[in-house]
Amino acid sequence: MEFRAANLKYPLLSYLYMKNQNRARPAGDGFIKNCNELLDVPEERRARREIVLDALEKAIASVHPDTVIPENVGLSDNFLDIGGREFPLKGRLAVIGMGKAAYHMALALDRILGERVDYGIVNSIKEERIGNIEVRKAAHPFPDEQTVKSTEKAVELAKSLGKDDLAIVLISGGGSSMFCLPHPDVSLEEMVGMTKEMMEKGADIWELNTVRRSLSMVKGGGFAAYLRPARTISLIISDVVDNHLPSIASGPTVAVEDEGEKAEEILRKYGLWDDVSEGVRKAIRERKERADADLNLIIADNRRAVNHASVVLTPHGLDHQIFHGIRGDVRKIAKSIAGMRMCAVMGVETTTEVRGNGTGGRNQELVLRTLSLGFEGTIASVGTDGIDGNSPYAGAIADEHTRRVAEEKGLDVEEFLNNSDSSSFFEKTGGAIRTGHTGTNVADLVVVVKR
Q1: Which pick of 50, 81, 188, 271 has the fewest CB atoms within 10 Å?
Q2: HSE-up of 215 (CA within 13 Å, CB side)?
């Protein structure tokens, strides 16, 4: 796999960073909770780790709702300023949200709008009330009955809105699971079962969401149809590296063309079509009403995170390449990184096949596979949402020190890889990165500092 680096310069970002930073600042009091443990390495390795962890910290902060909501939302008298456009407040103002970042998006929005919000329902990571916004805990990576009930309540709210009302929809990654209303002929159990099988067989996010859109009443513009005739503004934190709107939370406010044929092809590809129910086949072949929001605005994405990580490397004299939108199998990407001659910052969206019953995720596996190929330097890969696979970690960091510790403990890297158990490896060698839920979600970020 060959990568093509972005030929871009960010003079304003570099200026602002260098104006306020004289050296790398470890992120011990930020998103990375175990920073001191990760820096407990020989001095010759510590400086590189400080730079890499600081780059990750700055990147996550740059795409957090506390940063991007105030940048894009303002209130003046009876007008909302959204992304430079004015929207008059005539009737009720409703807030509906879904996804891993939706809770923090609602918090940031409430600080600006407060009591101007008449009612809100948000499906996210917590159960809480924020002003007039009711936040309901939803399930991820697979929806449950409570998630469906909360989504039904959001649909009821949407149907109650009139032409003078305004709806702000807060959309972020994870919304495909956390905002779920199956087609009447499809059971939740069957939808979840298909999703699990596709994930285990290595399906990418585009394939997963194409199928989920076809089986849902609220995806692919289905929810925007329920919101009519109210005016609708969607604020989106994108977890898809190419910002394909229908793929972000499966596009609840983005109308897509009939995808029945594509969904059928994907299910056939993974050997599932012959086993699905007649209800699934009917849902896939039946056209549902869809609509677009008046404004679908991406306020944070993977590209922004990569760019902010990049400017952390610049003051240290680290010439580096920037890669946006890297997709592919984790094995091929690890091989390409291992062969790099320069430092790099990358936005990635990898796929991997679960091969055992271990604990881990695609970020930790990417780091471990790169290390196993003789990589010299420091590499870290994290999921910006703070959760990597079925592990409690965001990702991992590794270098020559990691390799030495593994050798001293007699750890067989291939054994961990063959059992999809990368987390156990990094727990034993001290490289697992722990953040907990970060409050945002813009796919994965890789920082590489060569020796």
Answers
A1: 271
A2: 31
Domain of 347 in residue numbering reads as 11-63+304-450
Do 309 and 334 reside in the same domain of the chain?
yes
Q: What percentage of the chain exceeds 90 in pLDDT?
A: 86
| 12 phi and psi angles, rounded to 5 deg | -65, -45
Order across the sheet with 166-172: list the strands. Answer: 128-130, 133-137, 119-124, 93-98, 166-172, 231-237, 295-300
Does residue 2 form part of some domain?
no
pTM: 0.90
27 has pLDDT over 70: no
Is a pLDDT exceeding 50 seen at residue 85? yes
Count of domains for the chain: 2
Task: Let me know whether 286 and 368 are in one domain.
Answer: no
Q: Are the C-beta atoms of residues 248 and 238 closer than 8 Å to each other?
A: yes
CB atoms near residue 267 (< 10 Å): 25
Q: Position of tokens 């919000």?
A: 117
- Does 87 share its domain with 129? yes
| DSSP type of residue 3 | -
**Per-residue confidence (pLDDT) for residue 3, from 0 to 100:** 60
Q: Are 226 and 159 in contact (CB under 8 A)?
A: yes
Q: Categorize the per-residue pLDDT at 16 as very low, low, confident or very high, splitting at 50, 70 and 90.
A: very low
Question: Does residue 164 sit within a domain?
Answer: yes
Which two tokens mark 58? 């700055």
Helices within 286-361 (DSSP H only): 302-313, 330-338
Beta carbons within 8 Å of 24's beta carbon, 6+ residues apart: 47, 50, 51, 53, 54, 312, 316
47 and 167 co-located in one domain: no
- Residues contacting 256, CB < 8 A, separation 6+: 213, 220, 221, 246, 290
| Cis peptide leading into residue 229 (ω within 30°) | yes
- How much is the pLDDT for 2? 57
